[in-house]
Amino acid sequence: MSAIKLTIWNEYVHEKKPGLVQLIYPDGIHEAIASYMRKHDDVDVKIATLDMPEHGLTTDILADTDVLIWWGHTAHDAVQDHVVDRVQEYILNGMGLIVLHSGHFSKIFKRMMGTSGSLTWRERAEKSHIWCVNPYHPIAQGVDEVIELPHEEMYGEFFDIPEPDSLVFISWFEGGEVFRSGCCWHRGKGKIFYFQPGHETFPIYYNPQICRILLNAVRWAKFKGGESRKIGNCPSSGFTLNELSNPNTREEDWM
Ligand code: ZN
Q1: Do 107 and 81 touch, CB atoms closer than 8 A?
Q2: Over the stretch 95-121, which tens digit does the pLDDT of each residue have?
Q3: CA-based Rg of the chain, rounded to a whole angstrom?
Q4: Superfamily of domain 4-116+181-252
Q5: What is the DSSP letter of 159?
Q6: How far, in Å, is the centroid of ligand 1 from the Cα of 11?
Q7: Which of 90, 123, 119, 118 is nearest to 189 (CA)?
Q8: I want to staple 127 with a disulfide (CB 3.0 to 4.6 A). Which of 26, 174, 206, 221 is the partner?
Q9: What is the Å distance from ligand 1's center to 176 Cα?
Q10: pTM listed for this prediction
């Protein structure tokens, strides 16, 4: 089987300024994730960042991407709308999307969810427990029933998202809050996973359990349907119907 073509997109702003984030991620958050992914033969990694032409998300790159990971925080508004349109189109046609941490406020996440993506938060280096609530899900394979992070930013409910198709993780924080921290959705042919851990001032993306979850998510999010599906037309409206109308789509998710 050919390797999964993974593109890791990072706004790459915090890490360029001298300070704590740069000390933790001297080559950027994307390189921390990429160095883990490169240890696995079934993943072929590309990097894209905000300051590249078209934010590194040209048609050529997206056409050569099975799964896109997205980390953004301080520069969501700098992402050009026509690039968001393009990424959305590729997701609806089967590209997987993994949105990390503060990416809940990214243009692409809000576009795909259709909601505000808002939540409550508190930046105070609190202990977090990530509880697996769906141990039979592909994203939970090889993952402990609970992962303890000594320091993480608190994200709490209410998280303004559509009801997830699958909920894989719920996080508890030292202040008593809980949060739906690992959520799956389907949009068209594409699969989307949101995963909460990953505040930039803590070394979250060096945690082997967190990395394992990301790897599982990459493998899960790759489109596994056939290429030969017919696209149907609705005769009365002229609309083109895609895989949304195909009842077999969900079965293939588990292949
Ligand atoms: Zn954060």
Answers
A1: yes
A2: 999 999 999 999 999 999 999 999 999
A3: 18
A4: Class I glutamine amidotransferase (GATase) domain (3.40.50.880)
A5: P
A6: 13
A7: 90
A8: 174
A9: 18
A10: 0.90
